[in-house]
Every structure is written in structure tokens, then in C-alpha cells.
Amino acid sequence: MHFFTSEFFFGHINYWLFIVLMMTGLYIVIGKGNLVKKIVGLNIFQTSVFMFYISMGKISGGTAPIFPLDGKYDPEIAYSNPLPHVLILTAIVVGIATTSLGLALIIRIREEYHSIEEEEITVIEDTVFRSEHLVVASQGEPL
Amino acid sequence: MATQTVHHTAMTLSDHLPILQILIPFIAAPLIVFIGQRKLAWPIAFIASATSFVIACLLLSKVIGGGIISYQIGGWAPPLGIEYRVDAANAFVLFLVTGIATLVLPYARQSVGSEMPHKTQTLFYALFLLCMTGLLGVTITADAFNVFVFLEISSLSTYVLIAQGSYRDRRALTAAFNYLIMGTIGATFFVIGLGFLYMATGTLNMADLADKLTGQYESRTVQAGFAFILVGMGLKVAIFPLHFWLPNAYTYAPSAVTTFLAATATKVAIYVLLRFVFSVFQPAFLARKSKFK
Amino acid sequence: MALFSMLAVTALSVVRTRSLFAIVALSGVFSLLSALLFITWDAVDVAFTEAAVGAGISTVLMLGTLALTSRAEKISHKSKTIPLLAVVLTGAAMFYGTLDMPNFGSADTPVQTHVGPDYLTRIPEDIHVPNAVTAILASYRGYDTLGETAVVFSAGIGVLMLISGLRRRRRDEDTEEDTSDTGGDNLMRHHLILRVITKLLVGTIFLFALYVQFHGDYSPGGGFQAGVIMAVGFIIYGIVFSLDKVKLVFPPWLVHKLVAFGVLLYAGTGVYSMLMGYGYLDYTAIDPHHPSHGQHLGILIVEAGVGITVTGVMVAVYYAFASRTPVLSDEEW
Predict the structure, then answer these.
(1) Contact (CB<8Å) C4/A105
(2) What's the domain count of chain C?
(3) Segments forming the whole domain that contains residue C4
(4) Which residue, A74, B10, B209, B283, is most buried by CB atoms nearer than 10 A?
(5) C74 touches chain A (CB under 8 A)
């Protein structure tokens, strides 16, 4: 089994550390009730995924994929793969777009519910839901 | 630098149909915002979606016999560049999406007029077109990462469109927020899965992916990548058991939005899912899986 | 490895901390640390963007949100087992996937041998742009970038639709917000040093943004980063002077037009190449006799489109956030 060699371990420890970071982020998103915290968790989750992508493109002893000014490609120099960089640039932009939208929604939710805690909001929604139905049942007309 | 002789045959309008399919609603959206006139917003949106419906019909008639149209964006051959690929299956989905959008818009005019304040109506149509663009782009593209980008165009506009229901019921806001969280987790899972596949193949073009994946089905990286793409798209489409956010989102959204999304978004996502399951991964992958069990 | 442990500590502190203010600061720290990591892995463009976005804009927006919402997280009674289970399961699935991955940094992986090197060998001939990332971003995968601009655009108009200047027309019972002072904007009036430095700084920021914009094909940077930096210039001006002042300089109607114009410029470049008989976004059309000139020019134009839209959207989002009345008074900070 090649899984127990130290070479395998040190070649993969990076990935495992990303998994830890990603899962911390994911846990904040689904395990925490505060809406702002959820967005922060989402950012951490996504940023860790970005790190995973960038680590794919890295070549040991390589350098940043920017050619010298004369624009010649020298096969002797190992450049890290630029494609993951491009993908992640796009993903970062998508991430900030989602973040700003999420924050705007939080502001609206705060204005409507006076809370940014998931539990409190659920309670409010349940109460409203029940009272609507009670009114309908007893008086025959909604609020 | 010497002048290069460029061999080039000019492309005609009919060569451009695949890109025009996306481009017309895509350009109409910022145009609506740029003009900024509420009275012009609906006509522009309607013309754009009707035109793109006509294009979808043309494309469908071209490929219905089993042909495939490939369009290289930027003039770069895949896998370096991004490719659009129309076949009978996705031409039908395009036909469906544009058709439904064109049908929903006249109805939306009334419902939007009564359900939303004047101020946001102009932007509503721009977002509606963007949502449609995203769905069409996801359907037509042959590049796996391009799927993610257009998926996010449609998702982001969907979140806002759903939240517009808050003028009637504030629960639309929480529904939209939950959708945003679930949708983003889904999209990120999709990106993770894609990363795994990219790790194993080095490419993003779907045909190239399928090619490079054959013979790698035993790789655990590929298997995990497959699982993440499945779960990610599953969260987006709300397939059981990942469906819990969906009922709220559709209940509280403005009625025009619900009609449009219910009829299109899920179908597009299922199409993408099928495409990954049956085209990027050949049936042999699933057969191997069942043997494994 | 040191970076890793710092990242992990930051992420874990976010789980533990209750003060939202601290959490937002930690999230900025996380972004900066990850930017450092990106640099050590040769992804300079990504590092630049992550620093500008994660530590810059998104921190500003989150602080803005806190001012409009609340400062502390309440104790949650939510069950922790199900989320933990889901997270562990996901983590295990990923761990399973890593087992067949090649070692980090090795040069003979599919990633390093299949498409990546083709870009590296072809860019100097096709495009003559030193920064390979810019070349792929704006030309080979230029269509993705157009899509990304559209994502920013939809987020921008989405935020406008959700919280545009229209003050809340909420029910009458809620009076607590209306008593908070609206004078937050003018609070900086007495900080002379801050005002003088800001005046010097804003000009420099704009210059730097333009440099990043137009030098993106030679060095790290490009339309997106430039747009963010440009927007930060306006935001700093707005924070130190006042929202009204910055709105005089850069009126909202102009912002809205520019947001749309950037996307139109980008998409229009492609339409031009179509009209010239080439494929969509084929920049060869711009200069058919010198394809690489055309490519270079095309990249400049579309990057300008990206820059314009991003600046516009970020400023518009800032306006939308800043024109709401904060529920937290300044003493509470």
C-alpha cells in the first residue's frame, strides 16, 4: 500500500488541511443560526475551495505564469498552470456577488423581522402562520 | 512582426445562431437598465425573448434529425476555448425555456404591475432576462466551468426575483435567503466536484472530459468528483432529499416568477444532471458502480 | 505550514466567537492569509483579487450590514448533531477522493500536462501578452469572464431592487429605528488629519486603479481588481466626507448607466467581431492583419468593460447600504 509512505502523506497533507478548513466553513453555514455568520462561513468555505484549486496548479520549483517582457516562452522555466488561477478569479467574483446579495437580503430581513437569528425568525413565522389560520378558522376572514 | 495571411471565411448569420440564442436576452438586460425607461422595459424584454424563441425553433429544426452544431467562442478550438454545442436534446430544452419565457411575459406584465412598486419594475424585467440567459447558457454550453458561471447568473437573479414577493408576504425574504445559502452550497459542491474531475483529466470541455475519463472510472478522485457534482446539482434542483427549501421559495415568489421558474429552472438543472451522468460519464461508469455494490 | 495553522485558528475562532464585529474582522484576516498562500503558490492575480475582495470590499459591506442589523450573535439552541454529521460525511467523501490524487506540486499530473501547457506555449505566439492569466481570462476563456461580469451586474441590480434608496415603509408600531440619529455621515467633520490624508489618498487610489486596469496584461491585475480599487476610492471619500458629497461627484444615475455600459461594452466587442464575419469575441476581427494586435486591443477593451461594471456595481451597492438609516448608534460600536 502506497498510502502509508511518508511521501504520500506529505504530498496529500495539503489537501486534507483544505478539507478541514472547508468543513469548518460549511459547519458555520449550516450549524450556526446567525445570518451574518452564515455568510462569513460561506466565504470561508468557498475560499478554502479556491485554495484547493490553486494548489492543483502549483508545480514544485515553478514560478508565476507571467512571461518576461520580450514575450518569449522558455520551456526551461517551469510555470505553474494558469488555468486554475483564471477559474478561481471568476469564482471569487461570483463569491463577492453572492455575498453582497446575501447581505442585502439580511438587511431586508432585519427590517421585516427585527432579528437576524434563524430561530427567532422561524418562531415569528410560525406564530404568524398559526394566527392567520386561527383567524380564518374562527372568524372566516383573514387579518 | 510580419503581417500574417489569415485564411478566413466570413461566418454568416445562421452560423451564429447558437451564440445569438444566448446573446439576445443577454444584451437586452443591460440595455433595459441603460435606457432606464419603465415603459420600454417590457417591450424590450418581450421582443428579446420572442426573438430568442424563434432562434430556438430554428436551431431545433436544424438538429432534430440528429445533427450537432458546434460553435467555438472567441475562435479558439476546444479544449482551449469555450464551445457551444447544440444537439437534439438541449435544443428541445432551449425551445422549452424560451417558449415558456415568451408565454409568461405577457402575463407577467399584469401581475408585476399589481404586485410590485413602479420603481423596481424596470429592473425586474432585466433580471428576468438575465435569469433566462443563465438557464439558456447552462443548457447550451459544452464547457463544464461555463456551466457554473451561467448557473450563477440564473441563481443570483432567481434569489432576487423570489425576494420580490416580499411586497405581498415578508416570508419571501427568508425563503430567498435560504435559497441563496442552499444554492451557493450546491454551486460550491459542483465546483469541488469539477475540481476533482479536473485533477484527474486536466480539461474542462465536456467531450474531452468524457474522453479522458474513460478508463479512469476506478479512480477514487473521479468517483468523489461524480458524487459532489451529483449532490451539488441535486441541491440546486431540489431533488429529494435535498428539496426542503423549495416549497417556500415557490410559494412566496411573485406569481409570474413562480410560473417561469417552476416550468424551467428544475428542468434545465435535470438536463445538466443527465448530461453529466450519461454524457460526461458514460453508462459504463454507472454499470461499474452497480457491480461494485 | 505556519500559514495553515493561522488559517485554521482563524476559522475555528469564527466558530467560537459571538461578537459579529470580531467575526467580520476575522473573516478579513482569513482572506489576507489565504492571499499570502496564493502568492506562495504563484497565483499572484488570485492573491491580488482575494485581498481586494475578501479583505477589502466584503469587509466593508459586512460592517455596513452590521450597522444596519445587530452586533452580537445570540446563543443558539439549534441541534449540533445533524450539521456535524453532514460536515463529517462531506469531509469523508472528499478525503476518499484525495486518496487517488497525485502528490502536491508534481509535474506529471494531467493538470500539468494536458491543457495548461498548451496555453503556455501558445500565448506568446497567439496573443503576445506577458501575463498568461490575463490572456486566458480575457481571450481563450473570455466568454466565462463575460458571464462573470453578468453575475456582478445581476448582483448589482439585485441589491438595488432589494434595498435601493427607498426608505422603509414599515408598519407604524416600529419606532425604535426612527429615533437613531442620521448624522453618522458628518461625524468625521472634526477629524482634520483624516480629511487631509483622504484627499491625498483618494487621488493616489484612482491612479493606482488605472495602473492596475491598463497594466493588467503585463503584471497581475486587470479590470476586476481595478474596478474594486476604484470603488474603494469612492467609498473612502464617502465615509470620510459624506454620502451626499460623493453622490455629487458620482451621481447614482451615472453609476447605473455605467453598470449597464460596462456589460454592453464587453458584449458589444463580441458583436463587432460577429459583424466583421468572425466568431463571437474573436478579437482577431479588430485587426485582421495582425491577429495578435487585435487580441491585445480586444483584451484592453473588454477589461475596460469589466472595470467599468465592477466599479459601478460596487459603488451602487455601497450607496444602497449607506443610505439606509443605521439601527446601531455610534456609541454602541
Answers:
(1) no
(2) 2
(3) 1-71
(4) B209
(5) yes
